[in-house]
Each structure stands twice: as C-alpha cells, then as structure tokens.
Predict the 3D structure of the following.
Amino acid sequence: MSIQTLTTTPFDGQKPGTSGLRKKVTVFQQPHYLENFVQALFDELHGDAPASGHTLVLGGDGRFHNRSAVQTILKMAAARGYSQVLVGQGGILSTPATSAVIRRRGASGGIILSASHNPGGPDGDFGIKYNATNGGPAPEKLTEAVFERTRSLSSYRISDAADIPLDTQGAHQMEGMGIEVIDPVADYAAVQRELFDFDAIRRLFASGFRLRYDAMWAVGGPYAKAIIEGELGAPAGTVVNAEPKEDFGGLHPDPNPVYADDLVAQLMGAGAPDMGAASDGDADRNMILGRGFIVSPSDSLAVLTAHAQRVPGYRRGLAGVARSMPTSTAVDRVARAMGVACFETPTGWKFFGNLLDAGQVTLCGEESYGTGSDHVREKDGLWAVLFWLNLVAVTGQSVEELVRGVWREHGRCMYSRHDYEGIPTERADALMAELRNRLSSLAGQTVAGQHIAWADDFSYTDPVDGSVSQRQGVRVVLEDSSRVVFRLSGTGTEGATLRVYLERHEPDATRHDLPVQQALAPLVQLAGELAGIERHTGMGSPSVMT
Ligand code: G1P
Ligand code: ZN
C-alpha cells in the first residue's frame, strides 16, 4: 500500500451549483474528474496540513457510480491523512441522514454523492457536495474557492490500497486511517425518535391506519422500511419501491404528482389508503397525500407550523419559521396569527442554515417538496412523513381535515409552479433580461387585465451574517396580493428551465374547491404576456405543472 501522486490537468467547468457539483455520469467518469474536485476540496479544507484528527462522513443515494466514487474518495481521504471515515453500508446515506451522522458523531464534515431527484443510471446524473460541521451544505465561500482551485490543480494524492468491502458493517484500516462501515439508518432513527411520539404512531398503525410510502426505488426505502415498518409496526408492504436501484427503475425520483403519478392514482382510486407519501432520490424531499387529496408543499409547511406544539420535539413552541421566496404565503398567515416570526429567503436550503444555526427558526420549507427543521441542516423527507403521522395520530383528523382546517382559518393560497424545461440557455437568459429591464416600469400598469401593485428582483440580506444575495427572482405582485414569480433553475444539467410560480389567496371557503389551474388562469395569462414566454421559448405551455 502506498500513496501516489498523479498528474491531472485543470478541469474547467467544475462549477458547483446551489446543491453541489452536478453533471452527467459520463462527465464524472472522465479520468481524474472526480479526483480533481475532491483534491481541491481537501486542499481548501485543510491547506497544506494533513487532515489528522478529522472525521469525514461519506455516502450517497446509491445511484450509478456511487460505489466507485466512494472507493475513490476513501483512498483520497486516506492519502490526505484523515483519522477516520464513517461510510454508510453499501455506500448509502440519505442526505438528511448524512447531516444527522455529522452532527451526532461530531464529524468535521461529510461528502454526499447524489444528484437528488435527477434521473440516475449510466446516462443519468451524478453529483457531489460537501456538508460542514453543522451538518449543512458548505457555505458559498468554500464552494467558490474549491471551484477556483479545480482550475489550477496539477496533481492529486491517492492511496493504491484495495477497495474496502462496503456491504457489511465493520472496521477497516487504510494507510493508518480508520474506516467504519456504519448502519446508515441508526443515527437518523435516533434523531427521529427524540422528536416524534412513536407510541402514538404505533397505536395509529395498530388501529388499522393505512399508509402507502413510495420510496421511488431510491435511498429513502431502507429508512422508511426500518422506521415505519420495523419500528412503528406498519404492515409489511406499506413502503413500496423500497429497494434502492442504481437507475431508480428508469424513473424520475422526484416526489410530485407528475413523477409519482402511480402513488397519486393509488390515493385517488377505490380502496385508497388513508395517507400517501413519497421521497426523492436522496430522501430529502417529500410529498404528502390524503385519501383522494394532494397536499401542496406550501400548505404542508403551514399545517406543520400550525400544529407543531402537538409533537414532542416542538412542544416548547417555534422560534420562527422560514420559507423560500417562491413558496406560497400560507405559512406567513399561520405564523402571523401565532405571533411567530416568518422569514422569506432565496430558493435553496443553504439560506435556512444560518437562521437554524442562530436559533431564529425551527421549521422551514420550500414549494419544491422540501420541508425540515432544526433537527438536521438539510430538508428531510421521512421526517415530514413522521410529522404528519404524529399529527394524524394525536388529532384524530385525516390529512385532508388538517389542511382544510388551515384553509378555513387563514384562507387558501391557490398555488402552482409551471416549469418550462430544456430552453436553450441564451433564450432563457434573454427572457429574464427583458423582464428585468421592464421591472421598474411595471408598478401601476395593467397587464392582461391585472393591476400590478409592485414588481422587483428579490434581494436578500441574511439577518445573521449580513451577506446580500441579489437577483434571486422576479416578483410581480398584484393589488389583491396575488403574485407571479419568475426565476431560472440552478440545478438542471440540460439547457435552462424557467420556473413560473403562481399564487392567489382565496379567503372565501366556498371557493376552496375550485380547480387550482382554473383559479390561476388569469395569472398564467399575465405571466405569459409579461415575460413573452412563448415568443422567447417557442413553448405554448409548460412541460411540468406542480
Ligand atoms: C430546485 C428547487 C429548490 C431546491 C433545489 C434543491 O432548485 O426549486 O427549491 O432547493 O432544487 O433541491 P432550482 O432547480 O429551482 O434552482
Ligand atoms: Zn433531494
């Protein structure tokens, strides 16, 4: 066994997005590509010093290339002098579980191998990101510095040791570094046990309550099986598509009504179970359904906020709540009524991190099927499902009744997101540039019959560290507080995706059952006209509506 120094040429374009570095598998398979990034990361983290005394957590969502990347990173960590690596059995750790392991084991940080909800397999996507000591995504300063370094790196160091057997738990040594292959579920389950009333949920299942949890052939499966079927006593078969597959069964592991259409059909059909749930590729996203009822993620956050004190982990109340800017204002309305502070942050989980670390918020969420709390520093799919189960168990209300209760009290935020995918980048940029140019003249104008009260490009000043993030999305707000938000996706790997977020508040309960798209039609028209969507993209309608 020895440590080798291999020559590498600088890699251009290893620019991480908001959720780490995401590229096609074929890009990651290029010689030295992953190594280049990992070396740059280690150099930024440790300078010239060896990483002795440091523990690294390592795992991924099990997608194609996960196993080989784990072996490469182990050998590079050994060459770098790490004291210890904790790696999930089978190379597996969900994103929230990685966060939990970092925090519980006092590790210096962790590497997560995932492209989240993007498709996997040899032709799919792969990704890598670093989470810091607090268990949350690395600050932008670090990712920028790593990026700069990947452009000048000339060599990297790696052990020539043999691969480590990942499929059984146990301890190994490599170049003096300890490697522990750990149970990927144990630490995570311990965190959930401290938050939720497992006895109440056990009684709920024992009384015949039926849940269908679709793990979408992704990494949530082992977690949901161990906790929901194993510990909470739900009948075998409650968790379906539970075995993580390298290509997610050829499907798109994104828990929304479009990609989890089979689950939706089950919940809408005859003999539907009481509740449905799904999680994404790396198990940080969630979708919640009731029998014959789809819960929007924005409403989910509002319901969890309204009832948080019924759950042991939040019994003492909420320090505050936060939502990303495009997420509906349902949670704002609930928080205001409760006298709880509510923060509006740019899209992306990392903006919640500072607020959580500073103890300013307890719950947070995004419209993109992400919900979480201060228990870890990532969104957490299964956590949301357990929260809902706990609420159903202790209130005796169904999923639908819980949502309708919030609508009754605070009105319903009719809400939808329209995505226009695969737009040539320069056309999407032109659309946004044109829209931004018009921003200052929009206030007071009537477009498509709608009276615009104000419009801006969302800018966020972090209340904790004062850092400013500009140009986070164009908001157009009408006199009746309806709004349309435009932004480009920061996570795609093919062309650009325009996201249009539509929201209208409906106080009148007799109108809460109007079909959402119908209720939002005037806003859709406004959005199309304002941004010239068809003129710029050639697309007459969105490719995905959630
Ligand atoms: C998308 C979601 C965003 C989420 C991110 C990572 O980013 O919209 O809410 O934080 O994925 O899961 P986007 O592609 O819109 O930049
Ligand atoms: Zn994810």
Q: What stands out?
A: The pocket of 1-O-phosphono-alpha-D-glucopyranose (ligand 1) is lined by residues 18-19, 116, 324, 347-349, 366, 368, 370, 489-491, 499 (CB under 6 Å). The radius of gyration is 23 Å. Residues 171 and 271 are 48 Å apart (CA to CA). Residues 516-531 form the longest helix (16 residues).
